[in-house]
Structures are given as C-alpha cells and as structure tokens.
Amino acid sequence: MMLFPSLLAFLFLILVANISDAVPVNTTTSVSELTPVIEVLCVVDYSTYRLHSEGKNPTKVEESMKYYYSAFWKTVDIYFQQLNIKIVLKDVIIARNKFEDNHYLKVNKNRIGTNGLSFDLLNTFGKHLYYNKSLHNHDIAVYITQFDICQDVKANNSCEVKKDVITFKNEICKIKHDISMSHSVAMITDKKNIFTGIRNAVFAIGNLLGISKDGEYGAKKCKSEHGYFMSGNIDFASPYKFQWSKCSINSIKKTLKSLSSSDTLSCLFKKSKKKEINLSKAPLPGQLIPIDDYCEQITSYKSRIYTSYQCTELACRYGDDDESIIKGPAIEGSWCWDQKVNKIITLSQHYY
Questions:
Q1: Which of 64, 112, 244, 286 makes a 20 to 30 Å CA pair with 329?
Q2: CA–CA distance from 205 to each of 75, 114, 129, 187, 273 (Å)?
Q3: pLDDT at residue 262, as a whole number
Q4: Other beta carbons less than 10 A from residue 20's beta carbon
Q5: What is the pLDDT of residue 64?
Q6: Which one, of 117, 108, 76, lies nearest residue 201 by Cα?
Q7: Exposure on the CB side of residue 114, measured as CA atoms within 13 A
C-alpha cells in the first residue's frame, strides 16, 4: 500500500509522540496502522544447521530449527514493540549442506582461515538478494552464522578483529541499483544454540534504522558498558541487558521524523500480501531451554541453578565450590517463583 508524503508525515508525527521513555509494552496488543512493520527474511548458514542437527533425527532438524527461530524472532519483536515497531518473520531459509552454502553466497570465497568469514560476504549477500527476485518479499534480510565475522585480517589469513554484527547503518529498505545490491542486510552470530544472537539481531536492526551505538557519535551520553541493546555488549551480566538506552530512544525518534518524506517510510508501512510465519503461538527461549542447561552452556561446566526463586537474576554455579558463581539475567521466558510465573521483559522494569 503506497501512502502520499503528506499523510506519511502526519502519521509519523503521531507515531513519534507515541514512543515513551519508560512505558512497559503489552505484547498481546494488535498492530495499529500507525506502527511501522519490518518484514524479516532469516537466512541460516550450514554451520548453524550442523550445530542444531547434533544428536537429532535428520528428518526433524529443519522443523526444530524453524521452531527455535520462531522463538528467537518473537523475542526480537517484543523488544522492538517497546519502540512501537513491529517485527514480522517472513521466512527462514536454511542451508542444509555445503553446496547450498557456497552456491548461493560463495561462502568458500569469503572464508578467513578455518573459523572466519570476511566482511565481503555481506556484499555478496546483498547482491544475491538483489538478483533473486523470489526473495524480494522482505524489508531486511539477516544472515546467521556460527563463524567469526572478521573485520580485520592478519597476514596469515586469520581474524584480528572479530564482530558479532555487521550491517550498513541507516540503510533499511535501501536498494543500490547502480551497484546491483541490497543494503538492507545484516550478518550476525548466534552461537551455542542458546539464543545468544537475539541481542545481535536487535542491534543489527537498530543499526539499519540509524540508531547510534551507545558511547559513539550520536549517543555519547550513554555508556556502552551499561549493556543496553545498542551498546554492542552481550555480556551475560550486563546490568541493562533488556532495555533501550535514552540515547537509543531519542535516536529512533529523530530517525522516524527524518523518514517522514522518504521512500523508506512507505516501505515500513507497506504490508506484503504474502504469508508470514505466525509468531503469536511461538514459545519464548526459556520455554525451550531449561535454566540448568542454560547455566551449563554459559559456564562451559556442569552447572546448576543457585537461586531459582529470583526472576530478574540468575546465578550459575561452576567448579566445585560455592564461591565460583556467575550472575546475570535469566534467558527470556524462563520460569521462576516455583514455576508459577512466566517471564516477559518490559522496557524499563523486569515484570514477570
């Protein structure tokens, strides 16, 4: 649906006014006509397929992965609803073998050493999407991998600087016809099969929307070590792991105002008629991974819950004594208080 520029500007004046600095979100509320909708195409590489297939029936791996990534993107959607932005999952495309990995994205050409991928793969990804018209039914395409994403490469062809996210800032919905490439793309890592990539996905989409990274130009008043969504900090114990910083909130307000007369605005309001994956009945990550297993993955040691009654803080014991403890937030959707309350994250507070 195309909207006239004057109407678009009016809609966004209302939309920006609706973004609150600290108002919890009702995740069951239906999307209004004033809500921008970002349609996501999720592309999962072969390294991630191999991780998810370990110890599973080969015939059920793909179904299991789509279940996992439904929970993944449902959580991303919950976080963006805090900014009055809706995330819609259009499809999950999975590379089931090396041929599919290399045929479509020339992964071998963009490999760095044995465990790395170069930044050039993002360009290859963007060009593939530009030429493959059957994949045009999305606003953003996100490529998920287990490999390190290498920003700088040493002389011996190994990673010197590793990243969890790469994308083109403020390029959502942008198509570069002069170079035959989509710039509305991102590469992220989602390692260990415990939803570590959720914050990477949030950061990537935020970056595509033009939200500045905390601590950098445009967001210098917000410290990256506080661990907000746009901090680039995914540490387990980040104090504000489930929140947007004030800098991010102010940045998205400015971004939405700047879009009031651009083609990007119509892209975010234009709803595709093609089907999407229904996330309303998808589980949350904590409903798929027991907290004991989550602790063990975090500490790389046989671990268990130290305090099970606390919803907002999880303590994982590792080693052979009570002194070796890692504290941090429990995974989204974890059960707490004797399994009576299901945990949902809100913008400013942790209500479960």
A1: 64
A2: 13, 28, 17, 11, 22
A3: 66
A4: 14
A5: 93
A6: 76
A7: 0
Q: What pLDDT is stored for residue 319 in this prediction? A: 67
For the question of whether the overall pTM of this predicted structure is more than 0.90, the answer is no
Question: In this structure, are residues 256 and 15 in contact, taking their beta carbons and an 8 Å threshold?
Answer: yes
- Write the burial class of residue 244 (CB in 10 Å: 0-12 exposed, 13-18 middle, 19+ buried): buried
Q: State the Cα–Cα distance between residues 120 and 125, nearest whole angstrom.
A: 9
Interatomic CA distance for residues 97 and 131, integer angstroms: 22
Question: Which DSSP category does 83 fall into?
Answer: T
Q: What average pLDDT values come out for the chain (352 residues) when binned by 10 residues?
A: 39 44 40 77 95 89 94 96 93 92 79 84 92 86 94 74 91 94 96 92 96 92 91 78 92 77 72 83 89 80 56 70 73 66 37 26
Burial of 98 (0-12, 13-18, 19+ CB in 10 A): middle
How far, in Å, CA of 55 to CA of 193, rounded?
Answer: 13
Sequence-ordered list of residues with C-beta below 8 angstroms from that of 108, at least 6 positions apart, any chain: 102
Point out which residues pair with 118 in neighbouring strands.
150
The answer to whether domain 15-280 has CATH 3.40.390.10 is yes
